[in-house]
Amino acid sequence: MDLDLVFLGTAASMPTAQRGPAALLVRRGSERLLFDCGEGTQRQLQRSAIGLPDLQEIFLTHFHADHFLGLPGMLKTFALRGRDETPLTVYGPRGLRELFKRLHPFLGRLPYPLTAVELEAGERLERGDYTIEGFAVEHGTEALGYVIAEPDRPGRFDVAAADALGVPDGPARGQLQAGEEVTVGSGRTVTPAEVLGEPRPGRKLVLTGDTAPSPLVVQAAHGADLLVHEASFLADEAQRARETMHSTAAEAAEVARLARVRLLALTHVSPRYFGPELGDQRPVTSPRRRRCRRSSATPVSSRRSSRLRRTTR
Ligand SMILES: [Zn+2]
Ligand SMILES: [Zn+2]
User: What is the domain partition of the chain in residue ranges?
Assistant: First the structure.
């Protein structure tokens, strides 16, 4: 199953000539999930190779203007294009319904079904072969990060081992793949461990939205394949990051190191930075920690519409 991310907006607080404010599209198979919808997101999509699909699910991290101002325009565009049946669900933290009440005079009546779903931290949406779960972050307002996780899958079936053990073709092999023991003709019991390889871990993506560096994020992101963490500032603005409950690039890198994530993408970058200077920042560590072996986490500054692709496993 293909899984990738499209960074539609990577600017903090306001758009710049090069960057849009927060918006990230997750593509999983044929599904398109939009996380945050900063001003101009629909145009970012139109300018990309993706175009503007009739999105069915949009997830907001919080209700600061740089994360949702693109939504009213996009909802109106869907209506003007004649969308009348395809439902749209918008998820977000507490306060989402109040936001829609306030937007109502601008939106008017929309011809397609629109539902606003408020999520609590820890609430999980089951999707069959993956889940989406909101988690609390620290931004001084109602705000959620999101974990997209696939369950671990059983290891590959070793046909040669099954042949050697005398497991006949047919239901017995299915039972072993489902984790059940079977007894073969010789009277021997064959266990799943004898014919299945190592379990294949599911993929895990974690999106923080805006947050100060937080143990809550470390916990939610533990072992993630990819952590998309905000990095509004560089180390020389650490004080400002504290006051506004944002993170520096170095703090985001430290969160990634503690959470043992495989890849870190920095986004929500102050308009004063161009991007590459974020990669020069070192994780904030204590002297004792600094002596420990280097982190495998790699800071990546994400540019507009840059893509991270991992192949299907
Ligand atoms: Zn923001
Ligand atoms: Zn914010």
Answer: 3-153+200-310, 159-194
